[in-house]
Amino acid sequence: MKKLSVLFAAVIMVVSVSMAKAQKFATVDVMGVLNAMPEKKKADADIKTFLDTKQSEIKKKADAGQAKLKQYTDEAPKKTADENKAREAELQKLQEEIGQMQEKAGKDLEAKKDVVFGPIEKKLNDAIEKVAKANGYEFIMDANSPAFVYRAGADATAAVKKELGIN
């Protein structure tokens, strides 16, 4: 019985080793490839412009609120309690509007990123898939993944860049 279990363990080890050797692994520097893509550079510039515009709008509204706050603070001693209370409510409403603008800008930015980067990610994934099929890779993993404990095997970064027509 003991010989049978040792023999079984040996067979399992041989099968496991032969299966592991049959599989081809490769890595790709996903961020390196993405950063080399002209489409990504243009998308980054578009996102920056979009973000700058949104921040400018929010800053303009915040600056107007600061000016109004200063004016109301300076005039407060000369106004009645009811007028000061109304002005305080107005400033509170303005602050809420700025918060809503910031929240909307964040949502708009995420939506813009999805629209702009979606086709780029698809193009990269299609190129990786094509390289994997052409070279017989069963697995291609991101070379920058923190989950890697040991990395060996082919690096498909150059092949993916070539497939995309970038250096």
Automatic annotation (TrEMBL):
GO terms for biological process: protein stabilization. Residues 1-20 form the signal peptide. Residues 71-84 have a biased composition (Basic and acidic residues). Keywords: Coiled coil, Signal. Gene3D superfamilies: Skp domain. SMART domains: OmpH (SM00935). The keyword Hydrolase does not apply. InterPro entries: Chaperone_Skp (IPR005632), Skp_dom_sf (IPR024930). This is Periplasmic chaperone for outer membrane proteins Skp.
